[in-house]
């Protein structure tokens, strides 16, 4: 597994000859992720990356399973059209189309389908390890360990900008936002920052100006957008610039950061720290990471889908790389056998280096692949990796602190399996939003 995967070599070099074997029936991969609505930007770029991956593999004969080649087919369905439609899509993908792997963002939109998929022993890969629990033995988080990796940005900021100590946070109140808020709370507390303001807003909220105004009222040195959706991150960042903020900004993502630079300034965005690099970053050029030839994938993606590279453009494709290697090892696409092959070794390659299956302490099951993660800044108008932080190292040092904050927001696995009590939704105007001291 230290050499480039077949799919990556086909995609970026086309250097392998066609093998004289008969192409068989297609192997289908289901993609059940938001393709509309406010979370579309977490799904559609990833679908494009998967299609690019599949086209590269198919161009040289397809997937080798037990000495026979099969074309790969990506079958996409939208999980943002309601619970009934999501459940129906899951049934279609598994029962009628025989998809051997289901890729999903996870979270609220996917939750209606998850119990049935686990009963059928479907192999499902999510980008949200907070979906994991002992009741989801066939659900894995092998690419992104959102929001755990956000601790690395906080650690870097604390070391590199020690004078920036007063933090104001905002987060949406959904299955992406609340776990992220808990992680940022724990990370800032561990770093000794003062949390001077916290706003929680409904996922459909659009009053970025009001949110930022309320945050700035406490005179923070750092504004943290947590894991807000890309459109909201753009709106919050532009509002902070318009309202004269001169401190640091921290967020999970900075998708389409050239647009943010154009609408603010290069100097303003030079104080922005996030977690997702461009894949032509020099820090990725000579690595032994599992996702090989990242610069070539980045270039191919940009040529095919110009201007759409995002935090998720590569993530689902990297899961396919891991799945492909496990299929070759197991010599079958059977979901349970492939999962066993993926987890045969506790340590395995990850997008950014060696990683370990982890999670029992927080999720009740070791189905999250956790390793190092990059911290990214914008320098000279381009994203640049400034450090690879150890997520496992932070968890070993501060695990109980994280558990405390996840529990406070009802995000531990056993809490998520209980029906939540009805609560009044916190909404803006920002003057009515929650204060962290009363949350």
From TrEMBL:
Protein name: ABC transporter substrate-binding protein
Keywords, comma-separated and alphabetical: Amino-acid transport, Signal, Transport
Pfam families reported in the protein's UniProt record: Peripla_BP_6
Keyword ATP-binding among record annotations: no
Domain Leucine-binding protein: 26-381
Family membership: Belongs to the leucine-binding protein family.
SUPFAM superfamilies on file: Periplasmic binding protein-like I
Originating organism: Paenirhodobacter hankyongi
Statement: the UniProt record of this protein carries the keyword Ribonucleoprotein: no
């Amino acid at each position: 597994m230290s050499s480039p995967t077949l799919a990556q070599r086909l995609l970026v070099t086309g250097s392998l000859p066609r093998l004289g074997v008969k192409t068989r029936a297609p192997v289908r991969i289901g993609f059940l992720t938001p393709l509309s609505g406010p979370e579309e930007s977490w799904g559609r770029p990833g679908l494009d990356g998967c299609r690019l991956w599949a086209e590269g593999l198919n161009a040289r004969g397809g997937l080798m399973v037990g000495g026979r080649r099969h074309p790969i087919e990506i079958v996409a369905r939208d999980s943002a059209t309601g619970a009934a439609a999501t459940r129906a899509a899951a049934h279609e993908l598994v029962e009628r189309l025989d998809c051997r792997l289901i890729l999903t963002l996870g979270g609220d939109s996917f939750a209606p389908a998850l119990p049935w998929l686990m009963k059928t022993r479907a192999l499902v890969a999510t980008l949200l390890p907070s979906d994991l629990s002992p009741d989801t033995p066939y659900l894995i988080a092998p690419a992104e360990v959102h929001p755990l990796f956000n601790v690395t940005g906080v650690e870097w900021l604390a070391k590199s900008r020690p004078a920036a100590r007063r933090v104001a946070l905002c987060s949406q109140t959904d299955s992406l936002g609340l776990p992220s808020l808990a992680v940022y709370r724990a990370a800032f507390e561990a770093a000794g920052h003062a949390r001077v303001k916290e706003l929680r807003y409904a996922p459909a909220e659009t009053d970025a100006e009001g949110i930022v105004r309320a945050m700035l009222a406490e005179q923070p040195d750092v504004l943290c957008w947590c894991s807000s959706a890309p459109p909201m991150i753009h709106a919050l960042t532009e509002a902070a610039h318009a309202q004269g903020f001169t401190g640091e900004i921290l967020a999970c993502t900075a998708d389409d950061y050239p647009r943010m630079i154009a609408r603010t300034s290069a100097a303003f965005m030079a104080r922005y720290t996030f977690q997702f690099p461009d894949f032509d970053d020099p820090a990725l050029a000579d690595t032994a990471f599992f996702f090989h030839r990242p610069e070539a994938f980045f270039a191919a993606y940009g040529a095919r889908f110009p201007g759409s590279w995002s935090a998720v453009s590569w993530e689902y494709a990297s899961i396919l790389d891991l799945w492909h290697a496990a299929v070759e090892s197991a010599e079958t696409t059977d979901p349970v056998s492939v999962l066993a092959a993926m987890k045969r070794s506790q340590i395995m390659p990850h997008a950014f280096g060696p990683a370990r299956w982890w999670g029992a302490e927080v999720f009740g099951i070791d189905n999250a692949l956790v390793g190092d993660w990059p911290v990214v800044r914008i320098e000279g108008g381009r994203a640049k990796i400034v450090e690879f932080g150890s997520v496992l190292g932070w968890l070993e040092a501060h695990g109980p602190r994280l558990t405390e904050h996840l529990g406070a927001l009802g995000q531990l696995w056993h809490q998520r399996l209980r029906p939540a009590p009805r609560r009044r939704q916190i909404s803006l105007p920002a003057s009515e939003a929650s204060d962290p001291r009363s949350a």
